[in-house]
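Lecture notes, unit on protein representations.

Consider one protein chain, 121 amino acids long.
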Amino acid sequence: MVSVEPAHLVGTGGAIGALCRHYLGTAVDVEGFPLGTLTVNVVGSFVLALITFASLDTDLLLFLGTGACGSFTTFSSFSFDTVHLWEAGARAKAAVNATANLAGALAAIGLAWGVVAVAGL
């Protein structure tokens, strides 16, 4: 088996994740609410949990987990978006955004756990 430097695995996965984040986030974003950020955070939480619970080997975890999912999801944009909504006076939207990101990510992790358990991975 060919050995790949861990930094290359993370960097390549990161490039792929960042591009996927851009395209998916842009495709679903709406005016006045950061739906793109919410979407990538929930989807990314599901994928990261799925590959973690499936106990993939270290190289795949570095590539997909640390690299791709790490650059695909975004806590900083979620935080910024929430504060921006709050400061703009859209307090209800800020609360919905915070709740949806946290609850959505937790639900996605639970779903991934269930998928792995049922599939026997």
